[in-house]
Amino acid sequence: MSIQYFNEDVPFPKIKRRKSTNWVKKTILSEEKRVGDISFIFCSDNYLLEVNKTYLDHDYFTDIITFDYVEGMLINGDIFISVDRVLENSVEFKTTFENELNRILIHGILHLLGYMDKNKEDKLLMTEREDFYLKLLNDN
Fold this sequence. Notes:
- The protein is of the alpha/beta class and 140 residues long.
- It has helices at 17-30, 45-56, 83-92, 97-112, 120-139; strands at 3-7, 34-43, 64-68, 74-82.
- It has a four-stranded mixed beta sheet, sandwiched between helices.
- The mean pLDDT is 96.
């Protein structure tokens, strides 16, 4: 069982891997699930657009795509993150790149844990959980 970080066509973003890994593990365990194999893949807008077109038949930019390979209580998945979009969002939402990147990281994990964001109520719950887990990260 492992949490790994990769980059495709962008420089590797500044991320505290050990701290992020411990945070992700604590998040999964606090939701009463088990940590499986999780990969975070950092890439560009164009790379993620191609993933979106190829695998989801969507022709638009996005900040994250989560491929869910969860098996019961074992949390497995591939999480693709557009570094370009994270940077743009950090400017738009007037936050740091690091904070926005952490929000996106935990957003992907929350999807693997079963949280959705397709309707207004689900989005509200997702944001509440993101805020909760971001506070846990920032308190450590």
